[in-house]
């Protein structure tokens, strides 16, 4: 008698339903529910299969050590006439025929496993279900061991449920581990770049110190040689003066001898002397001898006292020379001591540098061992990554660093994603939403080209410059322009399309400036003033071109720049001339095609000359506001009054006229110019604003220096 095969899918569903209780914990009620469900299911099957799985309370003695052993794979018990053969196995010798009950269990298990869908993720979970059913058959047939077997099964079920909960709890940790690994890799790369930069600085400093040491050593050797030379000259001078002293003494003795001889000869040759009175002559001789004795004594005294004395003139010269040499020696000695101290310090720095170098070298080796390679930007030349292939990628990547290349790549990827979108979701009607984007529902993506968007923005600027700037706000004007251009029904779709494009292409000059003005991050007066400045430069260069040949000299270019920017520093003018084509080897007579400085490419990008002009304007504005902050002497979160801000502006820029000054104050305090109090009428505790907010508001508007700092304030 054949029995009906149970529906494995419904049973599996029931088991999965009761497999895990809500709340993530397993309690006694949950185990009781599992046991009751299984008992009900088994009791239904037992009614149908009792004749097949019960053998009169006798079990097959088929041994486990038989040679025909069978592993239970994909088998299930069948309902073939089992009772007819209930006693036949007793007549078979042991180890020859497998028990029918075992064969039915194996056939049942095989069929159940064949019905499973092994392509799903829960294959291993479903694979256990047929084995559970086989085990339940054993529990029901072996009444004696049913409590023990049931407790074993429940213990395994509880452990399986616990393991499943543990796996589910560990899955978020795996994702967190991946994120932490990426953050650590980025920090390692940043640390490596910083260490490479510091190592290069230390190497340059080491080379400079070594050069300084060599220079000091050379100076020391030259000073030592000079000192030895001076000592030699001093010894020679000393010997020369000794020789002169001895010669002087000999000369004096010779002169005295000659004088005595001359006196004796004169006495001998004078005939009138013998006619003198002998007494008188005797007295004269006596007096002469006394004078001679006194003179001889004085001479001996003079010799004793001044024998080693040199002339005052020579003494003063030698004293001056000695003093100079002493000063030089003291200076050299102090320099030598300083050089020795610096040498010791440099030796210490050198040893410290060597230790740091060894440490950095070991860290560098460790980093090189564990580091990842730098990005290979040549892979972006593939046409599948960047449209246009290698030529366009090389044009985009020219002169850009890795950070800028990432921005370029993001724009290219964003452009591809933007073109894949057919609709944009509306942002609603919230107060934070710009007026031209307030819409519910979906709007169509018009998918214009980048060039079309730039041309549309240029047309909008042209119309804005024709109209009165104060007639309506710029966002309202933009939406009115779209309604006039494409009609009211298409205006919102074009507004979303253009907004997404200008928000994506931040590196484009036209789109970035339009986005800043549209979102209120910059006043439109900044753009208008910049265009007026460029137009004025072109006009004056055209006036300087008297022959209307399209070229001017470098001298004309310098004159035009200095007349238009009288307060720019000389190096700023030099930078603009270099961007215009001037170089140190060029002369003032060199010709320049000035019209090429003001052309734009197909994407609206200006030439380097106009870009440098804009960069200088931004830098000068930042310097102006930083100088204003230093003049106020306040922190960013301190409050500043209107009189104090007025005074600070006049101090840093005395050339400000009253109208321009009131315009700056009106922008900083968000007041109409008609409501600003006159100078001297303000109250110190009246109108106040936080300094950070005031600087941000001034940063948005067109603010620039109107005079030199040395200029006296205008009355």
TrEMBL record:
Query: Where along the sequence do coiled-coil regions lie?
Result: 199-233, 285-342
* Record key words, sorted: Coiled coil
- Segments carrying the region annotation (Disordered) are 1-28
Boundaries of every Translin-associated factor X-interacting protein 1 N-terminal domain copy: 106-215
One cellular component GO annotation, for this chain's record?
Answer: cytoplasm
Check the record and name the Pfam families matching this protein: TSNAXIP1_N (PF15739)
Where is composition skewed (Polar residues) in this entry? 1-16
Mind telling me what this protein is named? Translin associated factor X interacting protein 1
Q: Which organism is it from?
A: Mustela putorius furo
Q: What is the lineage of its organism?
A: Eukaryota, Metazoa, Chordata, Craniata, Vertebrata
